[in-house]
Design brief:
There is one protein chain. By secondary structure, this protein is an alpha/beta fold. It is 40% helix and 17% strand. It is built from twelve helices and 14 strands. The two termini are 59 Å apart.
Length: 366
């Protein structure tokens, strides 16, 4: 951190002796006018490795500073490409192998590791078999599963994950799980499994911000504690910062997770142009009411009385079969002559009105 003067160490490095060792390493370097933050990946690294990384970072800063005579705006710094970022952030000692099915990407990552972390080079493997890794390991299907609202548990219960503007709400349901007749024990079993799966889904979907979890109600405080500790223990391996509160008086568990980037749902999908992200469209009855309101409003400003109403084919069939008498009654009451026609280009919630008198569509006039 330029123009600062402190040493920061990742909170995820909990061992006090390791924190002291890292702090002493930086102090020996006596770097002035710079704040130094040691990330979690610094844990266990020797002095040479840390100094090498530090020197690289300082050199990058010097390059950025040397560009101050450029005409603005100009590119001051560009981070590593996505493959290198993934390797930099995720390739730890716990990872045994990295398989890459693109020769160009493999060469890039190999060069990057050769310059930054040679000890992980033997973990790289070029995937030579036919077809992509995504096809062989069914990755695309797993991504699609990660976008669904409902996540099934092995016990037969399920999680319902809903995104709102302010927070993400996770509801735990027992679903098909019956178990024995002891409700408390059954609920505890589903909740424990749900706590594990919740921690997993938060990482898979990269969900951040405020999260509220509605577990199945438990009467005993000791059982609530078991669920709380199960969730907390499963969140320890999360790279993002997590803050977890105990159960509230209403049986809800609140937590926050660091929002590093857009979550998976909003990264790979856009809002539906039909429902505008609501997930719902007006019902058939609501559409009928909208058409009636449109006609009544149009009648006050025009002498037209003969119209053709175009509808989605499914809505057209529904109106013809179930609303025929209501439609006739509406025409008699308002002195209108209406014809219904099918238009496959219309969505189920849309309609268009054609004026026989004016010989044009007049839908937008109301």
């Amino acid at each position: 951190m330029p123009n600062q003067n402190y040493i920061g160490i990742s909170k995820k490095i909990s061992d006090k002796y390791e924190r002291r060792r890292l702090r002493e390493i930086i102090k020996r370097k006596e770097i002035k006018n710079f704040g130094i933050i040691l990330r979690t990946s610094a844990q266990g690294k020797n002095e040479n490795e840390i100094f090498k990384d530090l020197k690289k970072t300082l050199n990058e800063w010097d390059k950025i500073n040397s560009k101050n005579d450029e005409t603005v705006p100009y590119l001051a710094y560009r981070d590593e490409e996505t493959p290198n970022q993934v390797i930099r952030d995720l390739l730890t000692d716990e990872i045994s192998n990295v398989y890459i099915d693109c020769k160009k990407t493999y060469n890039k990552i190999y060069t990057y590791l050769k310059d930054t972390n040679k000890k992980h080079l033997d973990k790289l493997s070029y995937y030579k078999k036919k077809g992509s890794i995504f096809q062989v390991d069914d990755i695309e299907n797993q991504i699609q599963k990660s976008l669904k609202t409902k996540v099934w548990l092995k016990s037969g219960g399920h999680l319902a994950i809903e995104h709102t503007e302010a927070m993400v709400v996770i509801d735990v349901n027992s679903g098909r799980f019956i178990g024995n007749k002891k409700h408390e024990e059954n609920s505890l079993k589903v909740n424990i499994e749900a706590a594990r799966e919740t921690a997993r889904q938060l990482r898979l979907r990269d969900i951040g911000g405020l999260i509220v979890i509605d577990f199945i109600d438990l009467v005993k405080q000791e059982n609530r504690k078991k669920v709380y500790y199960e969730l907390r223990n499963n969140l320890k391996g999360d790279r993002a910062k997590v803050s977890l509160a105990d159960f509230s008086n209403f049986g809800l568990l609140e937590m926050t997770r660091q929002r590093i980037r857009l979550d998976l749902l909003h990264t790979v999908s856009d809002n539906c142009p039909t429902c505008k992200g609501l997930g719902l469209i007006p019902s058939k009855e609501t559409l009928l009411t909208s058409i009636e309101c449109w006609l009544k409003t149009f009648k006050t400003k025009s002498r037209d009385r003969r119209f053709v109403i175009y509808l989605n084919p499914k809505i057209y069939e529904y109106f013809k079969e179930t609303k025929h008498s209501e439609l006739r009654g509406f025409m008699w009451k308002n002195w209108l002559l209406l014809d219904l026609k099918s238009d496959e280009n219309l969505s189920p919630h849309q309609f268009k009105v054609f004026s026989k008198r004016q010989k044009k569509f007049v839908t937008e006039e109301v």
